[in-house]
Design brief:
alpha+beta; Uridine Diphospho-n-acetylenolpyruvylglucosamine Reductase, domain 2; Uridine Diphospho-n-acetylenolpyruvylglucosamine Reductase, domain 3; Vanillyl-alcohol Oxidase, Chain A, domain 3; 3 domains; 9-stranded antiparallel sheet; 5-stranded antiparallel sheet
Length: 454
């Protein structure tokens, strides 16, 4: 980088600029997953859209690899890069609620916790994720699954508009009337098309929900998960629920069910009775709670500073044999911090056409996640091997499809499966808006070749 260019950039940039020798650099390059440690040449923490444009122009002029950081919660560490420039949106976290129109405008660096805090004041919620510190940017661009998915759809189904800074530094609006092709691609196509400086979402009347944890001894895992599967097949859209194989604070192996009912609370009590009466749970923590509290229940399971590695696979059905295989594999994990989650979607999200947005897997309601977590870096291979072999165990039952936001560092073939049959159209859109592949530190779509279906 030219020292003259750098001095000029610093003088014009209104946010913070960190180079390796600067105080605060090491903190600025950290993300929640300690398995990722990268050293950018520069981190540009933007104060607004003008700073984003300036950072893009500077990176292009100096031929710098460029990563985009929103929440920094992507497990593969795509918020960072080595030797290049990080465009950091973490100061751009404002949330503006129009309660009359039930619309919410959110800056690109906002977290789910930021959104929940502001919308809850008005008795509203935006369908987005399950962990408060997750960035809305990465979550939405990958599709966005969470506690409201079955009633109100994915985050992308509630996206009304986006402000995008392109690789040329142009500011575009993408919605159903402007740049419709870009708007389609943003809803599930990842960070391939630009820096999203703000989103506008449809919000919904959700204030208090019925939710919490049901916990059973691990010995009951197969029976609990089978009952959970059968129960969810006829559950109303107001209910989203996941199952998990995990450990208690004392290290004891458990199986849990985590429901969230977003309709009338009295009706929810009735709906959840068959779930709560099954077997003899050692804990029934289900109760009415403010929606932001429900959103925070799993936050302690994803602390900053631990080592993490994820694998996941989407399935059309959850057979008895698949359940047995999942439980057997979970029983072999060697870290009490690791867990397996069985997420069930469907509902409103499953009734959207696979081509209506860039997210192609509407017909696959089951996502099985093997989430390895540990503290000692020396144990990395052991825990990664456990997560990887979990995906292998489920290969006979899976559809060779993946949820984009759950992908760790993967080969190109796996990334293609996340885009499925929408990949050719995404590649054409990528070629139009980013023909040089400037935005490539992501689940990358190469604009050079229009590929066939995965």
């Amino acid at each position: 980088m030219s020292s003259i260019d750098l001095k000029s950039f610093r003088s014009a940039f209104q946010g913070q600029v960190f180079e390796p020798a600067d105080a605060g650099y090491n903190e600025a390059r950290q993300i929640w997953n300690a398995s990722v440690s990268k050293r950018p040449s520069m981190i540009a923490r933007c104060s607004g859209v003008a700073d984003v444009i300036a950072a893009i122009h500077f990176a292009r002029a100096n031929n710098l690899v460029t990563a985009i950081r929103a929440g920094g919660h992507n497990v593969g560490g795509r918020a960072l890069c080595d030797d290049g420039l990080v465009i950091d949106l973490s100061r751009m976290r404002a949330v503006f609620v129009d309660d009359a129109a039930r619309r919410v405008r959110v800056q690109g660096g906002a977290t789910l916790g930021d959104i929940d805090r502001e919308t809850h004041v008005f008795g509203l919620a935006v369908p987005c994720g399950i962990v408060p510190k997750t960035g809305i940017g990465g979550l939405t661009l990958g599709g966005g699954v969470g506690w409201l998915i079955r009633k109100y759809g994915m985050s992308i189904d509630n996206l009304l508009s986006a402000q995008v800074v392109t690789a040329e530094g142009k500011v575009l609006t993408a919605n159903t009337t402007e740049n419709q092709d870009l708007f389609w691609a943003l809803r599930g196509g990842g960070g391939n098309f630009g820096v999203i400086t703000s989103f506008e979402f449809q919000a919904h009347p959700v204030a208090t929900v019925l939710g919490g944890l049901l916990l059973y001894p691990r010995a009951m895992a197969i029976d609990v998960i089978r009952h959970f599967r059968d129960y969810m097949e006829s559950a109303p859209d107001e209910l989203t629920a996941y199952a998990a194989l995990l450990h208690g604070p004392d290290g004891s192996p458990l199986v849990g069910v985590i429901p969230c009912y977003c309709g009338n609370i009295a009706e929810g009590e009735r709906v959840l009775q068959p779930l709560r009466k099954f077997g003899s749970p050692i804990l029934d923590g289900i109760q009415a709670m403010p929606f932001p509290v429900m959103q925070s229940l799993l936050a302690p399971s994803f602390p900053d500073g631990n080592q993490n590695y994820w694998k996941s696979t989407l399935q059309r059905e959850l057979s008895n044999d698949a359940i047995s295989a999942i439980v057997e594999h979970a029983n072999g994990l060697q870290s009490p911090l690791s867990f397996v989650v069985l997420e069930y979607y469907g509902g409103a999200a499953g009734r959207v056409s696979s081509t209506a947005t860039a997210f192609p897997h509407r017909h696959l309601p089951w996502d099985i996640l093997f989430l390895a977590q540990w503290t000692d870096p020396a144990q990395t291979k052991m825990h990664r091997d456990w997560a990887r072999s979990g995906e292998d165990v489920l290969r006979p039952f899976s559809e060779n499809a993946h949820l984009l936001s759950a992908l760790d560092v993967e080969g190109e073939d796996v990334i293609k499966t996340a885009f499925g049959g929408n990949l050719p159209r995404l590649a054409a859109t990528k070629k139009k808006y980013d023909p040089t592949n400037f935005f490539r530190v992501n689940h990358n779509i190469n604009p050079g070749v229009l590929v066939g279906t995965a």
